[in-house]
């Protein structure tokens, strides 16, 4: 889906929610305009997703409709639209090193990470060799400046947050992520060995696997990272979508819980890893 289409859809959803508040309050557009001090043409533009409301507009709209409890969620939705889409191309102009470094402040701020990835091993858990192969794939596909050494160094530096005992990490990966050979057999085996170590005795980290034949009640097609309960990063081919609206975050939290209920951990996870590792070592 194109960037403009995603943003237009998000604007349409916000407009529909505001229109529904007015309708549920039994107000006409002109009556709402009178209560809020807005021009009635502005009301129409907002409800038809022609004009974005600002925070003052949303607060006044909710107050006029006796829906103050909706303010926080609607403001978050509007902010999400303003900055929901991070264009990788803009960040990638000087290479992936800058992209990787841009994550560091958020990682340092976040206390609880919940991560789902079905296509590749999460960056915080990657070995140096695997990280190099993964990032090399992105550089070659996107045809961007080649700063592979800086990008790998930045990604490995991010992993320092794993040593912070005040943080909690819950990783779930699909079995396919373990099998996709982004690097050669020896490097894949080394990466899987590292994951095996994480399945036992790491106090602030859990690592689960969705077996290939498992059937969760919800199988998200996209990779996503939940940072505390404040925002969700969704990875797509052309870029990232940032969700900050509490209702959106809640949907991803529910999806993560659905994955957690069918994921295997501990000894069962080690058995999956040993099987896949053995296949790579036999190659």
From TrEMBL:
InterPro entries in the record, alphabetically? Answer: Cro/C1-type_HTH, DUF5753, Lambda_DNA-bd_dom_sf
- UniProt GO molecular function: DNA binding
- Residue span, HTH cro/C1-type domain: 18-72
Which CDD domains did the record assign?
Answer: HTH_XRE (cd00093)
**Family matches, as PROSITE patterns:** HTH_CROC1
> Which Pfam family, just one, is annotated for this protein?
HTH_31
* This protein's name: Transcriptional regulator with XRE-family HTH domain
Which species does the entry assign this protein to? Streptosporangium album
């Amino acid at each position: 889906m194109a960037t403009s289409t995603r943003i237009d859809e998000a604007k349409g959803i916000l407009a529909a929610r505001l229109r529904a508040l007015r309708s549920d309050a039994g107000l006409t557009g002109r009556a709402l305009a009178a209560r809020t001090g807005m021009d009635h043409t502005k009301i129409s533009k907002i409800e038809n997703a022609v004009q974005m409301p600002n925070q003052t507009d949303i607060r006044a709209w909710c107050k006029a409709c006796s829906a103050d409890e909706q303010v926080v969620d609607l403001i978050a939705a509007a902010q999400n639209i303003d900055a929901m889409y991070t264009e990788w191309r803009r960040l990638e102009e000087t290479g992936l090193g800058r992209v990787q470094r841009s994550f560091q402040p958020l990682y340092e701020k976040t206390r609880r990470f919940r991560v789902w990835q079905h296509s590749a091993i999460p960056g915080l858990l990657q070995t140096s060799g695997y990280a190099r192969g993964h990032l090399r794939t992105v550089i070659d596909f996107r045809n961007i400046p080649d700063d592979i050494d800086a990008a790998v160094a930045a990604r490995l530096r991010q992993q320092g947050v794993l040593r912070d005992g005040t943080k909690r990490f819950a990783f779930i990966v699909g079995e396919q992520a373990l099998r996709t050979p982004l690097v050669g057999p020896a490097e894949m085996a080394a990466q899987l060995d590292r994951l095996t170590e994480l399945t036992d005795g790491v106090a602030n980290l859990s690592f689960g696997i969705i077996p290939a034949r498992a059937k969760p009640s919800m199988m998200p097609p996209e990779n996503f990272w939940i940072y505390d309960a404040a925002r969700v990063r969704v990875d797509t081919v052309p870029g990232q979508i940032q969700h900050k609206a509490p209702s959106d975050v809640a949907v991803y939290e529910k999806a993560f819980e659905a994955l957690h209920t069918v994921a295997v951990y501990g000894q069962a996870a080690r058995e999956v890893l040993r099987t896949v590792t053995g296949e790579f070592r036999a190659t």
